[in-house]
Amino acid sequence: MDILLVASAFNSLCQRLYAELADAGHRVDAVLARDGDGALRAAVAEAGPDLIVAPMLRTALPEEVWSRHTCLVVHPGPPGDRGPSSLDWAIDSGARRWAVTVLQAEAGMDAGDVWASVPFDVPPVGKSDLYRGELADAAVAAVLLAVERFASGDHKPLSQKDPSVDVVWRDAFRQDRRRIDWAADPTETVLRKLRGGDSQPGVLDGLLGAEFFLHGGHPEDELRGAPGALLGTRAGAVCRATADGAVWIPELRPRRASGVPAPWRRPAASVLADAARVGAVPADRVAALPEVPVPWELPEDRRTWTDVRYREAGAVGFLHFGFPGGAMSTGQCRRLLAAYRHALARPTSVLVLGGGRDFFSNGIHLGVIEAAAVPAEESWANIHAMNDVVEAVLRTTDRLVVAALGGNAAAGGAMLALAADEVWCRSGVVLNPHYRRMGLYGSEYWTYTLPRRVGTGTAERLTSEALPVGTAQAARLGLVDRVLRVAPDGFAGEVGRLACALADGPGLRARIAVKEAARRRDEAVRPLSDHRRAELARMRKVFFDRGAPYHALRGAFVRKNPQGSSVRPLAPVSWDGR
What pTM value is reported for the model? Predict the structure, then answer.
């Protein structure tokens, strides 16, 4: 069928549905819906779709659209659940099971007939992680089922007036319910509030005499202090004492005088440092916060937070890293490189990168760049740091390296994965192996890694069209070597089992020898340094050109201001893959 996706933003769920519906054989287009924007009406008139699917909407569909076309809306709640904050209420109530329901759009909010509903487990993770994981799995299953039922022509959707449907209205989830009472709330209560508000808008809280929105929460099992006190920093996060323990908070956003949050979040320690520089918080209190060290290797039973962690199982090393939103700042790249070098010093034959349940990597940290005194300089430093990590992987010839993608990867993060010898990903992962939508040519040795995987012609098409690639297509193209059909919580365990089998399997030493010989041949044909030089020459021109689209696109991205109204293929990019 011809299916039109309508969304307020082309977010992770929209991208996944775009890819999976296309993999199912449908012709898919997408358009952004905005208040007072005629783009949606024009797109519907132009496309004349058989079906409209709305995965994520902040505004209601116009009556002239849903009254003339069947429009299926994805609602993150069970049948009968209504309201704008369904997932927030589920996390707040401690629900162990929830559901995604596909409804037909009508005048009443979330009141339309039910075409499909799929339940999912609710593990103790952040709302955004849950949204991209268990909820997205259920949403895709529900949409595919609803589309199949619609295509059959003989399915009658369930009216919510049916006695089997328990209708419950849930109001918008307000900040007063998120407020943390540091003197009284135990750690688990604090974590639940932080996890429920880890995306938008965060948890509003007072800190050192100023107000900030807190993002993310992880338990700490050793540090202790007076409830509410800041205990230290680690890798950009801050640790804060609770009534019975402590939590790590990776990111903050200042609250502006108008009461709204600053446009984007950043590593907590850097936000506090900026606030101290302008006198918003006491500079001496911020300067006195100790940096809490952590070794790369930690006991399995430690409940603490670090963005990079290493462990071993037999002949396999596991280098886990997880950066909020998948963005990797200059400092984060340097920490990862240091940990990678630590891993290379260990006597293993297989090294697994990633393995977490959320984002693998999305490349350079646009939020940190946007907040920098000179964004061009920070862009330049960040891309060099990212390149250093990728180069280290490419030059590893004494063991096999596996990139394990439990979540999505984009731009330089996708190229980091392709630098490995094998790419394993969880089913449902979306790859965006391109840079075009940020106005960049790209680096991270993509002119070497992408063509060697998919060929020059396909590499040119992927980087020019700049469209999301689902796991089925990625496997067909050769972008990934193995797709693991497991739940998000089961990914790490399955990766561990397969990696140990790889290390214990026959022919491993021969594979490593072949890999080393291939690297020598490739280096003789065109050195990695030449790829890096050519890519960075293109990037530098953009970074230091104030009129380049990159700067406006970056600002719009971090402020979540969508550019354009469709996600159709862009104009071709000049190719320099050689």
Answer: 0.93
